[in-house]
Amino acid sequence: MRAVDLINKKREGLPMTDDEIRFLVSGFVDGSVPDYQMSAWMMAVCLRGMTHHEIAALTNAMACSGAMVDLSDLSGIKVDKHSTGGVGDTTTLVSAPIAAACGVTVAKMSGRGLGHTGGTLDKLEAIPGVNIERSVDEMIEIVKKTGLCVIGQSSGLDPADKLMYALRDVTGTVKSIPLIASSIMSKKIAAGADAIVLDVKTGSGAFMETLERARELAATMVNIGEKLGRRTVALITDMNCPLGRAVGNGLEVADAVYVLRGEVKRGDPLRDVCVLISAYMLMLGGAAKNIGEAKNAAERAIASGAALNKLREMVEALGGNGSFIDEPEKLTRVKRIYELKSRAAGHVRSINALDIGVASAMLGAGRAKKSDKIDPAVGIVLKKRVGEYVGANELLALMYVNDDTSLEESSALALKAFEIGEKPTFVPPMVYETVTAENAACDLESACAPIL
User: Fold this and answer.
1) Mean pLDDT, the chain, as a whole number?
2) Active site residue 82
3) pTM for the full model?
């Protein structure tokens, strides 16, 4: 078997066997397949696509390229959740504690933020003392005690994805849905979960800017999960506007605490999406029979304080100071809070999530590259939502600042993010669709579509 023959085969749009895909992936990891040949093959995938079967085989080969996490020592169905990234996307810190409070086992490996999107690990590390660099054995012990643990990805997990991702970024092969889906799902498969809830974002602040692309990615990932023996559900949620009111690491931890305290009312986008995600985690984890029962259980976990206690327990098990869960305002102490005010009266017609995310990153809340350090206290808190009325010179947002260097540019971009109009606007739903194994069975051509 030769890599060049497999490149030619994919270039011609011919389906590959499982053995051929394993040969290519394992060869790339051990160095026998050079990066220029893997780059050529991935470009052929971009132009020719892959069948559902091929994508599942690729995902499995990538997952098996390194260590596979064994969670069999943990009782019950182990449920993971994954978000494709967004702005003010604090869902893990809310939905995972809710699910654990309702008896679902949650052992999760998360990532860091890059660019305008926030990472769960960065948010957890905003809490003094928290150490997310834990071994799998340590994670398992924490889950046994608390039912919940979120740590950084193990260094030996899915090396194929690390190598392929680095190549995709510099070879114009990032946008291929088969490659995106296999990258996400291979890490979830390798991390050992029995069931997975996916939150696929769509809109200006998401990687999938259109609903059509988000739907295709969601269906592809659900298909992969089911083919590889993991019950999988995907929600397609809006990311044209920030999900939470807070954008910034410490600010988002505080936002999550306010939801878990029950201080955020139903109808709030972050609260409602988190309750729905946790409800599906309960269903997949066997803790509820239907979505209504699951949502009621999630609401009870918030009202009783059980979910907040789970977050505190996990933070303390990770070495963090639990008092910051009781007093999250301590996480957001900065030198200056700048008031961003509206220049005109009217209704907020939209809040561009990308602009808010970039503006927050400019203040030091995000990274332009992986090596950048972040300031956990800075960021932006929205005081107005889409559909609300704002008067001239009325407060739109608060900007938490420690370094004024980029404040002028950041505040200008944040102000530009708010579209103010005379007439009220239609507020789109936060959840567009739910993709399950039953409705993800689209025809093979949709997953084979080229990116151009």
Assistant:
1) 92
2) yes
3) 0.92
